[in-house]
Every structure is written in structure tokens, then in C-alpha cells.
Amino acid sequence: MPPFYAVTYQAHPPLVRGAVLRPLSVAEFTEACELLLAEAQVHNCPYWLLDGQADENMRPLDMYEWLGEDFLPRVRHTLGAVPCLAFVARPEFWLSLQAQGYANDTPTLQPSIFRAGWFTDETAALAWLSQFRPLS
Length: 136
Fold this sequence. Notes:
Layout: E1 5-10, E2 15-20, H1 26-43, E3 47-51, H2 61-79, E4 84-88, H3 91-99, E5 115-119, H4 122-130
Parallel strand pairs: 2-3, 3-4, 4-5
Antiparallel strand pairs: 1-2
Helix pairs in contact: 1-2
């Protein structure tokens, strides 16, 4: 596992957890995405809890476009299921994204390709994920 990102899997209920361990560069951000997909593919798990609270870096806008237009559709295709991603970050990070037109208050951006929710605490994120993932 790289020193900047941790990925784990829990079976019951199914969940891939990703956690930023320190602020990420653009290259590390994309590598973390690929690590998540690899772990999700091993367990065929489209339910992800992504803790980015340790990351302070804003990404170039094209990174968010890459997520929505390339990476998440690829996740959908690879897993054969709509991925459900709960992002947890510090409030000021979300405010910055919202100011740029990303991470708005709409919990689902492209429901046929992916579902995403933005949160400032894990409890709320897990509650949101529970409406999509099986309990066992």
C-alpha cells in the first residue's frame, strides 16, 4: 500500500474504504482511484466510503471532469453495477468545490453511471450508503 492512501474492504455489509493519509498530488490522486477500483473489482463491490479529510489540495478542474467522464463510467463498466460513492471531507473543502460548481447539494449526479454523496462526517455518509447496499 502506498504511504499516501489506504484501501480496505469489509464484507458485511460490503464496503470498500479509502482514506487519504496526507495531501495528495495529482498523480497520487489518480493512483488512489486506480487502487480503489482494483480492490472493488476483487470483491465486486460498488459501495465506497472515501475519507479525504487529510487532503487539503484542490485538484485542477480537469481532474473532476476525468472522474465523471472517464473514471466513474469505467468503474460502472468494470463492476457491472452503478458505483455508490460517499465522500467525506472537511467543510471548507466542499465549500470550495461548490464554488466551482462541483459537489453541489444534489446527491446523485448521473444515477445511471454513478451515485455520489458529499459529507463532513462518516456517520452521515454510512447512513446514505445504507440505502443502496445490502445489509449482509
